[in-house]
């Protein structure tokens, strides 16, 4: 069954599934951090939500997808989305990948990739639960992710129409994408990333990721989105290429000279040291840059 159809099937079953597990998803999601459990495709899945103390009547929702070997809690600690949510008055969801990885196509990554776990259906179900229980604007739902999570953000944009914009960091697109360009896109990448290489050649690590060269991916997204000519500017080690597209969308690329596989402006963590990943660049704060981009984007909603 195609992934989008499977996601829709999961939504049909969602109301009953949530009622059968010890979750708070059927209640109003409280202020602060709350933990939730749902069942998707027979698998018990977990996520947590950060709700700031003040929300507008129609609040944005950001889905933050951790990288391989990470977790929702790790992403919450390291990337600074909760303080940004307090300031911007939006909700943040932190899903957990099974075995700390995501299935993003082409057999990647880890156990979810090997077993073809439907992570698109899972994230779709998370969004549906939060939209049911909080005043989320359906035209202002966004996804961002680091590394393997960045790859899942591409899959979500390719396989659903839920997301007004995505923001992959240190990732790429694996597998097919028959309709690129439906979501706005800001892609952030270190030019010396050895794990997910900017030029698309095989990276180092447990999975030799070899997606398309990032410039080719951005060109494809811009072409499909009917974008105009890009404007390019340089700010220190960062180069920012911005393009305005049809229907008010945008496709931006931010590259960082001398930066590797990392989240710019993120917290240096024990996970990074344990995995031998690169130190976060201090060229800019990716979370701030992404939220500024997201705040200007709206999708069709519904």
From TrEMBL:
The keyword Hydrolase applies. The keyword Nucleotide-binding does not apply. One of its GO terms (cellular component) is extracellular region. Keywords: Hydrolase, Signal. It holds the Pfam family Esterase_PHB. Coiled coil: none annotated. It comes from the Bacteria. Residues 1-25 form the signal peptide. One of its GO terms (molecular function) is hydrolase activity. This is Polyhydroxybutyrate depolymerase. It comes from Acrocarpospora phusangensis.
């Amino acid at each position: 069954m195609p992934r989008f159809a499977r996601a829709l099937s999961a939504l049909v079953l969602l109301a009953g599934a949530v009622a059968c597990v010890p979750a708070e998803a059927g209640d109003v999601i409280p202020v602060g951090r709350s933990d939730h459990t749902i069942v998707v495709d027979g698998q018990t899945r977990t996520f947590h939500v950060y709700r700031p103390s003040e929300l507008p009547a129609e609040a944005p929702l950001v889905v933050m997808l951790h990288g391989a070997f990470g977790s929702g809690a790790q992403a919450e600690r390291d990337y600074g989305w909760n303080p940004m949510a307090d300031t911007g008055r939006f909700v943040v969801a932190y899903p957990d990948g099974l075995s700390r990885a995501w299935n993003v196509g082409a057999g990647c990554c880890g156990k979810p990739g090997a077993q073809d776990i439907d992570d698109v259906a899972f994230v779709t179900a998370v969004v549906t639960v939060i939209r049911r229980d909080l005043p989320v604007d359906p035209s202002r739902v966004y996804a961002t992710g680091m590394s393997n999570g960045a790859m899942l953000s591409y899959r979500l944009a390719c396989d659903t129409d839920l997301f007004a914009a995505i923001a992959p960091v240190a990732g790429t697109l694996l597998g097919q994408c028959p309709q690129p360009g439906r979501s706005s896109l800001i892609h952030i990448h270190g030019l010396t990333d050895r794990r997910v290489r900017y030029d698309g050649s095989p990276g180092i690590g447990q999975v030799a990721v070899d997606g398309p060269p990032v410039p080719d991916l951005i060109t494809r997204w811009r072409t499909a989105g009917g974008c105009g000519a890009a404007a390019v500017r340089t700010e220190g080690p960062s180069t920012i290429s911005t393009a305005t597209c049809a229907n008010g969308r945008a496709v931006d690329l931010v590259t960082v000279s001398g930066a590797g596989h990392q989240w710019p402006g993120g917290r240096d963590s024990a996970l990074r040291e344990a995995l031998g990943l690169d130190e976060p660049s201090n060229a800019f704060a990716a979370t701030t840059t992404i939220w500024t981009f997201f705040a200007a984007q709206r999708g069709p909603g519904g």
